[in-house]
Design brief:
Length: 351
């Protein structure tokens, strides 16, 4: 009897890791780890219950913590941010990917009526500039060659063994394009653009509908390596210019949280608050207009696009109306931060 191959989409961003597989909902984790030996003396068993302890012999022998609210460990938190191809050789990055896959396997195996997950086919992505860089081998899947094969990990003392039979690597924005093509019927030859506002990377890509699916038009890629962080930094400076100079009130983390919650009221003193909605809207519009200028300079004609899809975690912050007089259709999925991983999974199960 042939083994069942479990399908799993994995999206590793600079801020978060999203995974979606058979019989599951999207799971979102931080794109960071904490080496256990750096915080062992700081924590007791009660605090450890809030996290999971992982260990693998594949990239190093040191156990590491993974879970929500890792920021509590301060400078001991190690992030996997990277703006070039070297990110994919980093043992920290590999541990993060393995932790995501192993967490899915553990969750599935714990279900009462579950068939144990032993073999997985994975689709994942990377920023388009990384994907196209010949040093990276993204198009050939070379950056993820290490993920194919057998893996053994321990999570909180439980040993998990699984085999990755195949890894399909795509441009990150491909997931959103594939999901859109599944949602709407597109004519052969039509083009759609994806504007992916990630926390650490902003990508603009154009895809054409072909007999083989959504094909990337390589000449129209725009990528900024700071992504939505550029907007956040601009807002910090703008609010500083408004007189809020206390870094405990006006900082990158606080501004990001205000954007996510779309609550633009800030404490500016003891018992004092101020609504900065006008400042936020001004800076968002400025950011979008600069982006549109860059797209125009790249020679992309909006009136030739069937749709512009705004995706990524930063998509919730951007006013779609800024684009509506330039393109036939502007679309934003619900929960746009998970559109790429949902598209990777859809693409897998369609094959």
């Amino acid at each position: 009897m042939a083994k069942k191959i479990t399908q799993l989409g994995v999206d590793v961003g600079n801020k978060q890791v999203k995974i979606l597989g058979d019989n599951s909902d999207v799971a979102i984790y931080p794109a960071a780890l904490v080496k256990y030996d750096t915080i062992e003396s700081m924590v007791d068993d009660t605090k450890l219950k809030n996290y999971s302890l992982y260990q693998t012999d594949e990239t190093n022998n040191a156990p590491f913590l993974w879970g929500e609210n890792l920021a509590a460990f301060g400078a001991n938190v190690q992030e996997t941010k990277g703006t070039d191809f070297t990110r994919y050789d980093d043992p920290l990055f590999k541990n993060l990917v393995l932790a995501a896959v192993a967490s899915y396997v553990k969750e599935q195996n714990a279900k009462d009526d579950a068939t144990k997950v032993t073999d997985l086919a994975i689709e994942t992505g990377m920023p388009t500039a990384h994907y196209l860089d010949p040093r990276n081998g993204g198009e050939k899947g070379e950056s993820y060659a290490w993920l194919r094969g057998k893996h053994v990990l321990t999570i909180d003392g439980e040993t998990l063994t699984f085999n990755v039979t195949d890894v399909e690597v795509r441009p990150q924005s491909y997931g959103t394009a594939a999901l859109f093509a599944k949602t709407y019927e597109l004519d052969f030859g039509e083009t759609v653009a994806v504007l992916d506002f990630g926390g650490g990377t902003m990508v603009f890509d154009v895809y054409r509908v072909t007999e083989d699916g959504m094909a990337l038009l390589r000449d129209f890629n725009i990528q900024e390596n700071k992504g939505a962080d550029v907007l956040i930094d601009n807002l910090v400076r703008a609010i500083t210019a408004e007189g809020v100079t206390n870094p405990n009130r006006n900082n990158h983390s606080k501004i990001q949280d205000m954007l996510i919650k779309q609550n633009y009221v800030m404490r500016v003193g003891i018992g004092k608050e101020r609504d900065f909605s006008d400042v936020f809207q001004r800076e968002i519009n400025r950011y979008v207009n600069n982006l549109l200028d860059n797209i125009n300079h790249a020679g992309i004609e909006f009136n030739t696009l069937a749709a512009l899809i705004i995706t990524g975690g930063g998509a919730n912050w951007v006013n779609a109306e800024a684009f509506e007089n330039r393109v036939e259709m502007v679309y934003r999925f619900d929960q746009p931060e998970t559109a790429n991983v949902r598209g990777f999974y859809v693409d897998l199960i369609q094959d």
